[in-house]
Design goal:
11% of the residues lie in helices and 38% in strands. It has 466 residues and is mainly beta.
Length: 466
């Protein structure tokens, strides 16, 4: 079941086509309900670069009891493992206790502002726990001594105790570890945690989109990374279009370091169009980075990283005359919305309709359109621009835990439920840390979100581009 909105095409203007997907029978289903465009839309998730990984399941874990009005429910608690696209392995803990983990879900490194951590005043304490417990502290004897655990700690105890302490801050959960040693560790970590700042991303390009006239340098795009250097891959059709990646002096670049500024060098005779730059590096992802899924699988937070492949992209749009928009999007969990930013470096206003409201970005200006969405609502926006430009933004707004008022829990019906009191689930590839039997199953019940219509509130922020 889908609800869709069709924005009428605008003569002499560029339009935005919007599709909204809902949950049906407890399963998340997304679809594209847009009209045909002049070019294939470049699909963009709202991560700002970094690692992309597939979750494999719980690898090191123990048992925990969640105390609720319906009684105590036992779930597995511990470390997940993810396989990084391009190579590498990540270890993560869950920060969304009542939401299940979907098998083989794809995750993207995400700023805290794009998850429930963005509005959590204790997010910094969670990072402290990660820095000061297993697996960052792999001397379990020393960790046990600090926590006052006389009987020592196994890896399973350490993982379970760490996860329980995190849940107390991430979800405000009334939860205890079953094993006494793990519980003592959890209490020590909870008492000792202090606030820490959000870690920087492993790799981002800022801004992610630029625009301008051909015959000059478009940019700069600044590289932010903890890697020693990143490799820069030119646009796929560079040999045909003549577009080069260069420094401020016009010298070709194939790599850059943190803080480096790169530009798109577009030939003066280039036809109106667009191009994309890819930056890639091998590095360890900073502990405390959030990982969000596009399939409503529970949010994770990084506890450990091997040397892993990270990447980021930036795009450039150019035209000889008229509007020249640079388009990007980012989740805004503080507002329960997605921010779509359009910067216009052309000599005419860039005008488009979005959800029944018309927006016009004057030449040389930038505006951010904030699109309010329901929690857990899937979204699909495609914005067209000059030269056949189509930019498509898709995802699911997942900004809350159930404990913070996130609403009903989405069950993954193909996955077994976590273990109940008396045993821990044997299958470590299931959502053992979310959606326990304490949560009523919603199989067979269609959940319809309130979909925002043409009269929806849209907030616009204005800023002068540099």
């Amino acid at each position: 079941m889908f609800a869709s909105f069709s924005v009428p095409s605008l003569r002499g203007r560029r339009a935005v086509r919007v599709a909204a997907a809902t949950l049906a029978s407890g399963l998340l289903t997304a679809g594209v309900l847009t009209g045909a465009g002049t070019a294939a839309a470049a699909e963009t998730t709202q991560g700002q670069g970094g690692a992309t990984a597939t979750i494999g399941g719980l690898k090191t874990y123990g048992a925990a009891l969640i105390h609720g009005d319906a009684g105590d429910q036992q779930v597995s608690a511990g470390l997940f493992e993810m396989s990084v696209d391009g190579g590498g392995t990540l270890q993560t803990y869950c920060v969304d206790i009542n939401n299940p983990t979907q098998r083989d879900a794809k995750y993207h490194e995400t700023p805290w502002s794009g998850t429930s951590l963005g509005s959590n005043k204790d997010a910094g304490r969670i990072r402290w726990i990660l820095q000061n417990s297993y697996p960052q502290v792999n001397d379990l004897a020393a960790l046990a001594a600090k926590a006052g655990v006389a009987g020592g700690l196994t890896e399973q105890d350490a993982a379970a105790g760490t996860q329980v302490a995190i849940w107390r801050y991430s979800d405000g959960a009334d939860v205890d570890a079953v094993d006494p040693q793990a519980e003592k560790l959890a209490d020590y970590l909870q008492r000792s945690a202090v606030d820490m700042a959000e870690p920087e991303a492993s790799l981002t390009l800022d801004p992610p989109a630029v625009s301008g006239h051909p015959g000059g340098l478009l940019g700069p795009v600044t590289v932010h990374t903890n890697a020693d250097a990143v490799t820069l891959a030119p646009p796929a059709d560079a040999a045909i279009s003549g577009v080069r990646i260069v420094d401020k002096d016009g010298k070709p670049l194939t790599s850059a370091a943190d803080g480096g500024k790169v530009f798109f060098d577009v030939p003066e005779d280039a036809a109106d169009g667009s191009a994309e730059l890819t930056a890639q590096a091998s590095t360890t992802v900073p502990v405390g980075r959030a990982f969000a899924s596009e399939s409503r699988s529970q949010t994770q937070i990084l506890a450990g990283s091997s040397e892993s492949t990270v990447s980021a992209t930036a795009s450039a749009t150019w035209a000889k005359t008229g509007a020249i928009p640079a388009l990007s999007a980012e989740r805004n969990c503080a507002e329960g919305a997605v921010d779509i930013t359009a910067a216009n470096q052309g000599d005419e206003a860039f005008t488009f309709e979005l959800m029944g409201l018309e927006h016009s970005i004057p030449a040389g200006k930038s505006r951010t359109v904030t699109i309010p969405l329901q929690e857990d609502q899937a979204y699909d926006f495609t914005i067209t621009g000059p030269g056949g430009l189509e930019k498509r933004f898709t995802g699911v707004l997942d900004c809350k835990t159930q404990g913070s008022g996130g609403g009903e829990v989405t069950q993954t019906l193909s996955e077994p439920s976590p273990a109940t009191v008396g045993g821990v689930a044997d299958d470590t590839n299931l959502a053992a840390t979310g959606g326990s039997s304490a949560t009523p199953l919603i199989a067979g019940v269609a959940i319809a979100f309130v979909v925002i219509g043409g009269a929806a509130l849209v907030v616009v922020r204005r800023k002068q581009t540099s």
